[in-house]
Amino acid sequence: MPRLTHDKTTWLTYAQMGLWGFFLYGFGPVVPLLRDEQGTSAAVAGLHSTAVAVGALLGGALFAPLARRVGRGGAIWTGLAGVALGVTAFGLLRPLPATLAAVAVIATAGMMVISGVAVVLTARHGEAAPAALTEANAACAGMGILAPLVIGASVDAGWGWRPVMAVEVGLIALVALAATAFRVRLPHGAPPAAAAPVVAAPASAAPVSGRLPRAYWIAWVLMAVTGSIEVCLSLWTADVLRSHAGMSAGAASAAVAAIVCGMFLGRLAGGRIALRWPPASLLLAALTVSLLGFALFWVAPVGWLAVAGLVVLGLGNALHYPLAISIALAVAGPAADKAAGWSSYSMGVGFGIAPVALGWVADGVGPHLAFLLLPGFIAAAVLLTVRLGRALRTAPGTTGAHRVAAGV
Where is the Major facilitator superfamily (MFS) profile domain (predicted)? Predict the structure, then answer.
């Protein structure tokens, strides 16, 4: 069984993912408040989600060339500096075009942070990379629980949501100072003798001249599908809780945090489980848990039962992205920086298309029935995971160990 070692570099990358999670999971509760300030419709306010998708695409395009120029560690710190700059603008500026531009800048920089952390942990931990990535995303979700609480406290105190942006900048500065004080340096590139992750493609199937293999592109589509599940839940769950479970608007908005709580707990436990289970098999199990949680949430006629379903749903969703990205980067081999950049495009596709599609259906049949699109996404993810497992097993030169790693 692979062993995960928590060195100073690993803890630093976890903290950097947490900094991104503080903004990401605080962004959803801010959008309705910003809509009230700007006096726009829900559809216009939703353009801020589109700005996130645009930023994801830009961040994906910029990461690989930036990492070649300043190193992976330099790319992560550049991304965090961009997040601080964008968050400052988002908190100070009020016109709609300005806030849209600020969100696009934040998302562009945030994708650099996500991509950099993923490739650093993959190169550093080899066979234990799925566990490390799961724990990094647990840190992201953990800070995601904190952000809405800070926003709520600030709003209740009469300060509004904007001071919370200063908290984000302060946290980034604090982590940078701690890294300097403890002399923690992120690696420039992959270590020359880095161990290959357990799901790595065999030598004959490794990328040639930077080309990405078929298994990577299956994982890429899988990330787009699972990203669609997460963003649709973030944007539309509160409407279903109000219309079907009879919750008030305030309670429904707060209850969305149940998903993030489930994701946090799932990633804490998943880091240990990922050391024992093959990633593809564990991903199938996680998708099954997501489906069970969704079923409980969707049929629940009362609020507390629906919230319980959201927690279970979050437990399953917790492992979707960490496992998919670990497989994608493993099969990419020496093209890991390029693969990480392209993975941001999958998130952009999911965030940019799925919420619009679900909203269009909801306009016709209501949000509760429209949410039946999500089991369709889950089923598609299951099929893609099975196909990915076969691609890992049947690639030319695959050994018995690789078949065990595929797990399906």
Answer: 1-393
Helices 163-181 and 8-38 pack at an angle, to 10 degrees, of: 170
Give helix 336-365 / helix 373-394 axis angle, nearest 10°.
150
Q: What is the pLDDT of residues 143-181, one digit of tens each?
A: 988 887 788 788 888 898 899 999 999 999 999 999 999
Q: Token pair of 308, please?
A: 């319980």
Phi, psi at 324, each rounded to 5° = -65, -45
pLDDT 10s digits, 37-66: 998 876 677 788 789 889 988 998 899 999
Using CA atoms, how far residue 316 sits from 203, 247, 323, 341, in Å, is 33, 24, 12, 25
Cα–Cα distance measured from residue 12 to residue 229, given in angstroms and rounded to the nearest whole number: 29
The 8-class DSSP code of residue 95 comes to: S
Is 241 in contact with 247 (CB distance < 8 Å)? yes
Short-list 326, 388, 394, 330, CA closest to 133: 326
Task: Say which CATH superfamily domain 8-406 falls into.
Answer: MFS general substrate transporter like domains (1.20.1250.20)
In this structure, is the dihedral angle defined by the CA atoms of residues 44, 26, 169 and 339, taken in order, positive or negative? Answer: negative
**Three-state DSSP class for 318?**
coil
Identify the three-state secondary structure at position 384.
helix
Q: Is 245 helix (H, G, I), strand (E, B) or coil?
A: coil
DSSP 256: T
Alpha-carbon gap, residue 74 to 61, rounded angstroms: 16
* CA 255 – CA 297 distance, rounded (Å): 12
Domain boundaries, the chain: 8-406
Q: What is the pTM of this model?
A: 0.79
Q: Count other C-beta atoms under 10 Å from residue 304's C-beta.
A: 11
